[in-house]
Amino acid sequence: MAKIGSYNWNFCTVGGVTRVKIETGEDIRHLGELDRKLWTVLSCPANGLEFDDKTLSFIDTDADGKIRVNEVIAAAQWLTASLRNPDLILQGSDSVSLADFNQDTEEGKQLWNNAKEILGCIKESKDVISLSDIGRCASLSDVKETTAPVLPWGDNTEAALKACEAIKGKVADYFVRCKMAAFDEGCTAALDFTAEKIKGISDKNLSLCSDEIAGFPLAHITPNQLLPLVGGINPAWEERFDAVKRLVFDVDYPGQTALSLQQWDEVLAKLDAYTTWKKAQVRVIPKYEPMEKFLYLLRDFYALLNNFVILANFYSKDKGLKAIFQAGTLYVDQRSCDLCLKVTDMSKHAGMVELSGLFLIYCECTSKVRNEKMTIVAAVTRGDVANLRVGKNAIFYDRQLQEWDATVVKVIDNPISLEQAFWSPYRKMSNFVSEQISKIAAEKDNKVLTDMTGKIDEGVKTVANPEKDKMNSKTQQAFDIAKFCGIFAAIGMAIGYIGSFFTSLFKGIFALNWWQLLLALCAIILIISGPSVFLAWSKLRKRNLSPILNANGWAINSKVSINIPFGMTLTGVCNLPKFKANDPFAKKGLSWQMRLLLWCLVLLIVVGTAYGVLYYMDMLGCIGL
Q1: Average pLDDT in the 519-527 region?
Q2: Could you tell me the maximum CA-CA distance found in the chain, to the nearest angstrom?
Q3: Which residues pair with 410 in a beta bridge?
Q4: What angle, 0 to 180 degrees and rounded to 10, lies between the N-to-C axes of helices 592-616 and 514-540?
């Protein structure tokens, strides 16, 4: 505990940074006394977060699209002044007892009166008020005072609106396709889902192909421009379509087996009338706004503080708690990435994200069901990165568990783990050798092709002029003999040098004691992998989420560290069970004698190479040689 100003604050270490703890209602009451330098966040966007936008709109009093420190403090002071016990804010409830309002303050007395009026409006004698009571009061009183309610499907109108919103885009797509088919019947097959198209996924488990099936038209395309109401609906949309049929079509067009575009437009017109009336009712209840604001803040304010003053949700060990900037989970290359953020402006990320030290992949995400697109950035903190490249497909699940198709469009390369860094030089060398072998093979292939075509061309010339070719052949033969003599001499010298090198090398190896061989092996590994591991370690311990949040419009006031242990929790990897597999296509294994021989050969080569490198670097003196 430490006294700052006139109040004693408790502190904790979160993410390697000392932060103030907000754990009581009194802490919230005194937020205005907390030094600005101790706030983790100075401002954040008021939209695009995994948080109730209405709550954020109540806090964003100047409507500039940002939640700032002064606005958070003002909300804290208003809330705590309204309550007898400010600890109620920590409960996160959207209801409150009338006895909990502090009628000794102007704020509390105003809210108590507001609550009594709302409860009187709904003719309830209870002593607890909730958000649902405000909605009931608005529908019962203010609607009657302004305009007649527009409820085309009675009490089911709101449900009908949600059901129609779920399929509206797909129905529009269907009728456009029908119009195209009516314009030219020859293109009907191309617009419809056909046996050929279904054949492309028929060899898969169709229960896992919901996205592909949902991408097909809502129903079979016909030039008569009628949507079937009985059967014939795409299975991926059938459940949502049946909800609309039950709530709307069966009410407005009972007994019909098909729906025309004109009738669908009539349904949309009714929905527009209802939504217009609904919005109007929201605007005519300003006298209830103080209570509505109070209950939204009472429910959500403490959660906001845990993502603003201190990033407690981000660093929580509880997997159910996530920060408001975490958009969902990306599944790619047998791993799940939990640290995913929406990207609103790629240009702002260009100069910032490299400073984070994180291995990042940017993905374009598309939802065919919602007909939406978005860009996310995901941090990869475990596993290998060999297969993570631009163009790789993945699946992203948002916080509502909606599925999105994701495609990698950009990769920011940084170390992921010390293990990866240890093997990195060997992988790079392996890739380099492989590329060089492929390059040499390609050059030899081209040379053989050139020689063959050249000989064919010479054969044609010989037939045309045999005497001249005979003279050239003798000259070339003399030249080739001289050239080959030089080549054989060079080869002999090379073999001699190589032989003497390996002779001295093996003499040196067999002259070493076992502990000297072990020291030599450790030394060569240290020389090769040491720099890579050290650089990775220095970067891993400095990983920081702040640059990415700043690129997303946040004003971060301190380091948001992602050290190695915490980073391991942000990416899940595939853990396969151990079992004895009977793979009919597995490679046939070698006998234990052959495996032992191969390992001895590999060990001999590694030790020999280690000795040779240390010898030519004049480093054998450090181990007594």
Answers
A1: 66
A2: 124
A3: 362
A4: 80
Dump pLDDT digits (tens) for 526-575. Answer: 766 667 677 766 677 788 999 999 999 999 998 898 888 888 889 988 77
How many domains does the chain fold into? 3
In DSSP terms, 408 is beta-bridged to 363
620 found inside a domain: no
107/35 same-domain check: yes
The residue behind tokens 């700052």 is 4
Q: How far apart are CA 176 and CA 189, in angstroms?
A: 14
Q: What is the mean pLDDT of residues 184-191?
A: 83
pLDDT interval class at 204 (50, 70, 90)? confident
- Domain assignment present for residue 200? The answer is yes
Place of tokens 């004049």: 618
Q: Cβ atoms within 10 A of the Cβ of 532, count?
A: 19
pTM above 0.85, yes or no: no
Q: Are 394 and 331 in contact (CB under 8 A)?
A: yes
Residues 365 and 395 in one domain: yes
How do strand 66-68 and strand 95-97 relate by DSSP bridges? unpaired
Does 189 share its domain with 142? Answer: no
Of the candidates 415, 441, 455, the residue with the CA atom closest to the CA atom of residue 541: 415
3-state secondary structure of 191: helix
Give the three-state DSSP class for 616. Answer: helix
Residue 228 included in any domain: yes
Handedness of CA 591, 592, 593, 597 (dihedral sign): positive
Q: What's the distance, CA 299 to chain centroid?
A: 28
Kindly give, in sequence order, each residue whose CB lies less than 8 Å from that of residue 425, ignoring residues fewer than 6 positions away.
528, 529, 532
Range of the domain at 175: 154-283
- Which carries the bigger pLDDT value, residue 453 or residue 86? 86
pLDDT > 70? residue 8: yes
The one-letter code for the residue type at 31 is L
What is the token pair recorded at 283? 């605007």
Tens digits of residue pLDDT in 339-375: 999 998 888 887 788 888 899 999 999 988 778 899 9
Q: Phi-psi region for residue 553, left (φ > 0), alpha (ψ -120 to 50) or beta?
A: left
- Contact (Cβ atoms closer than 8 angstroms) between residue 100 and residue 84: yes
Q: 325, 333, 460: which is closest to 395 by C-alpha?
A: 333
